[in-house]
Design brief:
Elements: E1 8-14, E2 25-28, E3 33-47, E4 53-65, H1 66-72, E5 81-95, E6 98-112, H2 116-120, H3 127-131
């Protein structure tokens, strides 16, 4: 059976600081691998019914695993603009007899998108070197 393409790119702003609650960051017991759970707010321009332009916000849950999650955790702060490339994953479970489902993004790479002023301030370390 052939594999289908499942690739996803998105930019947006973090809705909360990673580690603000215990669901945001932890370790998978079986593998002792880190996992960071973040949410990105993505704004999309759209034309309103009256012909004016407005904005529509969508929220995407993103999971970051392993050393990448550990290294990025201190920098995943509310409002930070990031770009994520990864793939979509569907989780399914049953709760109180109801079938439940959720689609989230599993990150392959996370990139910080900052203004020129922030880039020149040396506020972010060279994360690519840390991740390797």
């Amino acid at each position: 059976m052939a594999n289908n393409i499942n690739q996803f790119w998105i930019t947006g702003n973090l809705t909360r600081t990673c580690g603000d609650n215990e669901r945001d960051f932890g370790y998978i017991q079986q593998t002792n691998s880190a996992v960071a759970n973040i949410t990105i707010a993505n704004n999309r321009g759209k034309k309103n019914a009256d012909g004016t332009w407005g904005s529509e916000v969508s929220y995407f849950d993103v999971r970051i695993y392993g050393k990448t999650a550990e290294n990025l955790k201190p920098y995943l702060n509310k409002g930070k603009q990031i770009a994520v490339d990864g793939y979509l994953k569907q989780d399914r479970w049953e709760k109180d007899g109801q079938k439940m489902s959720r689609i989230s993004v599993v990150a392959n790479n996370v990139h910080f998108l900052e203004s020129k002023k922030a880039e020149n301030s040396d506020s972010l370390p060279k994360l690519a070197e840390k991740i390797k």
